[in-house]
UniProtKB/TrEMBL annotation:
Residues 30-279 form the Nucleoside phosphorylase domain. It is an enzyme of class 2 (transferase). Signal peptide: none annotated. This is Uridine phosphorylase.
């Protein structure tokens, strides 16, 4: 059945509502960054740029790098924006905008989506300035309260363990990212499990003028361990999007991986003086490996 106009909203030019893109605008491999100003830091390496589109916080450049067509899109911060991004990217390749009908299951297209972002380490042994690839994303946000996410037994147990450790009134969700992309892009990176927080200050244990309900929040994150047949599961770093990417990617059938430039270490209280270089090195490494 056709998807109603109120559900799949298109602009007058036929582009999807928030991203302002039409299907021909994107490639099958997409690099995402949080900051709109980081988009040209990626596309400056392209051999040529064919498309530049800007709407709200979503800036898109499409071009070629060493013969490969790539798309780089900024998302803004938070899993609420990732909800918009993933659903609209999927619509661009898996919904016919003329008939407003989804592709048959056997014709669905799987995108390769690579988040390149900054993150803070939670553990003292993760070096400042290192690059970390996320095996799992653990979401403290509420996005998956609205979707039928299916988790593995380990993922459910990890989420329940985090809930118990933090005494939360809800169970956080846990999702493994793309093994394929992690092996391709993260071979020499630190492998970790990324905590996705629904904010930058209180949810990440920062205190300015507001006190925290859990004054030892950071210590709770750092101490968390879950032991299974697969080994020890600990939280290595945190940011604000990865778990949303992994959960929506799984449900929609896309390959998704999160690559993190570690620019802060909350265990040692340090912030990288060369944060821009750490990010730029990760961008170059990602482009070359794609």
């Amino acid at each position: 059945m056709p998807i109603p106009e109120s559900e799949l909203i298109l602009n007058r030019d036929g582009s999807v509502y928030h991203l302002n893109l039409v299907p021909d605008h994107i490639s099958d491999t997409i690099i995402t960054v949080g900051d709109p100003e980081r988009v040209p830091l990626v596309s400056q390496h392209f051999d040529s740029i064919e498309t530049q589109i800007h709407k709200r916080e979503f800036v898109t450049h499409v071009g070629y790098y060493k013969g490969k067509r790539l798309t780089v899109i900024s998302t803004g911060m938070g899993t609420d924006n990732i909800d918009i991004l993933l659903n609209e990217l999927d619509a661009l390749v898996n919904i016919d905008f003329v008939t407003r009908e989804a592709r048959p299951l056997e014709e669905r297209i799987a995108l390769r989506i690579v988040r390149v972002g900054t993150s803070g380490a939670l553990q003292e042994d993760i070096p400042l300035g290192s690059h970390l690839v996320s095996e799992h994303g653990v979401g403290l946000d509420s996005l998956m309260q609205f979707y039928p996410l299916v988790e593995t037994g380990l993922e459910v147990e990890v989420g329940a363990g985090v809930q118990q450790a933090l005494q939360l009134p809800y169970r956080p969700y846990c999702v493994r990212g793309s093994d394929l992309l992690r092996e391709q892009l993260g071979a020499d990176m630190v492998a970790g499990n990324t905590l996705t927080c629904p904010g930058f200050y209180g949810p990440q244990g920062r205190v300015l003028r507001l006190d925290l309900r859990m004054p030892d929040l950071i210590q709770q994150f750092q101490r968390f361990r879950y032991h299974s047949a697969e080994g020890e599961f600990r939280l290595t770093n945190f940011e604000m999007e990865t778990a949303g990417y992994y959960a929506l990617g799984r449900m929609l059938g896309h390959e998704v991986v999160s690559l993190n430039a570690i620019v802060a270490n909350r265990a040692t209280g340090e912030f990288a003086t060369n944060a821009d270089q750490v990010v730029n090195d990760l961008i170059q490494k990602t482009l070359d490996r794609l």
